[in-house]
TrEMBL record:
Protein name: Pirin family protein
One matching Pfam family: Pirin_C
Family assignment from sequence similarity: Belongs to the pirin family.
InterPro entries noted in UniProt: Pirin (IPR012093), Pirin_C_dom (IPR008778), Pirin_N_dom (IPR003829), RmlC-like_jellyroll (IPR014710), RmlC_Cupin_sf (IPR011051)
CDD domains: cupin_pirin_C
Length: 337
């Protein structure tokens, strides 16, 4: 049998993915204590390029936020995002009239479809201690037939996301968090209705894998003709197929073959993305994704004309005060956690 490892690559700021995924943004920031407005103090903001702060000064970034870190309202069209917040919180608001605060293991699934405005701010809810953030945002493409579906967003609350625990022959633990797809017989929560992942044959798999120090874990063989990438973003090293893989690398894998991993002396954290390629032309311009230049022009024209419904909230970097975890959906329904 051939080697299941196709390529090993070093991780950058935006992690390289393969069709049908577009990229994965990884945000790890050790934010300071927050003020009443849910942002850092004025003293902490001195010397930063507010509005475009990506330098990770003192271990954290403001991104495009001026007062609160994060991404004030901006448009998306033609694809979907899966946002997993393992530490800290994200405040979502959008042009559909929906909003919510999620974090501590929650995930949000948003199908942008024909177009939506939304903001993602990272409120510093703790005023008496630091506010660490660990967030992944995965961009998943949509096929041509779904590029103009109605936008939709859904919450996957951490209490409901399946987490499978397995021990190896030495009693060492592996945890598999199934955000999309299935691990063995353990199926994920449903995605948004028009998602690429809503059709089983597309084989969309998103797992977060945690390995105890010294643990052995075998990534099971998946479907043929799927693209599979494993991201090793925290730990010491992994041994596999006669190689040692250091932290901060991704592995392009042959999806139809299993892969045995032997962890090093520190806990390892990994993310798996897998799916059948769409195999359609991709034209990306900033936050828009189309199949041709002509379709891209249509998206831009539509945004200029309609603003995708406009911004119904009082601020571009809108946050949700002292609310706990919640979701208010476009139909008016409310969920509190």
């Amino acid at each position: 049998m051939s080697n299941p490892i196709i390529k090993v690559k070093e991780l950058g700021f935006h992690w390289e993915t393969k069709d049908p995924f577009m990229f994965c943004a990884f945000h790890q920031d050790n934010y300071p204590k927050g003020e009443a407005h849910k942002g850092p103090s004025k003293d902490a903001l001195k010397g930063r390029f507010l509005g475009n702060d990506f330098q990770k000064k003192e271990g954290w970034r403001m991104y495009h936020g001026q007062e609160v870190p994060g991404f004030p309202y901006h448009p998306h069209a033609g694809f979907e995002t899966i946002t997993l917040v393992e530490q800290g919180f994200a405040d979502h608001s959008d042009s559909m009239g929906a909003k919510g605060r999620f974090g501590q293991g929650d995930a949000q699934w948003m199908t942008a479809g024909k177009g939506v405005l939304h903001s993602e701010m990272f409120p510093l809810v703790n005023q008496d201690k630091e506010n660490p953030l660990l967030l992944f945002q995965i961009w998943l493409n949509l096929p041509k037939r779904s590029k103009k579906v109605e936008p939709h967003y859904k919450m996957l609350w951490h209490e409901e996301i399946p987490i499978v625990e397995e021990k190896d022959e030495n009693g060492k633990l592996a945890k598999i968090k199934v955000i999309a797809g299935h691990y063995k017989s353990n199926k994920s929560l449903d995605p948004t209705p028009d998602s690429l992942a809503a059709v089983a044959k597309n084989d969309i798999q998103v797992w977060r894998i945690t390995l105890e120090a010294g643990a052995e874990f075998t990534l099971p063989a998946g479907e043929t003709k799927s693209n599979r990438v494993l991201f090793f973003y925290e730990g010491e090293k992994l041994k596999t197929e006669g190689f040692e893989i250091p932290e901060g690398h991704s592995l392009d894998l042959e999806s139809s073959q299993e892969l045995k991993l032997v962890n090093g002396n520190k806990k390892a954290e990994l993310l798996l993305l897998q799916g059948k390629p769409i195999n359609e032309p991709v034209v990306q311009q900033g936050p828009f994704v189309a199949n041709s230049r002509e379709e891209m022009s249509e998206i831009i024209s539509d945004y200029q004309r309609t603003q995708f419904g406009g911004w119904p909230w009082p601020k571009a970097e809108f946050t949700h005060g002292d609310e706990g975890r919640f979701a208010l959906f476009a139909d008016g329904s409310l969920v509190k956690k």
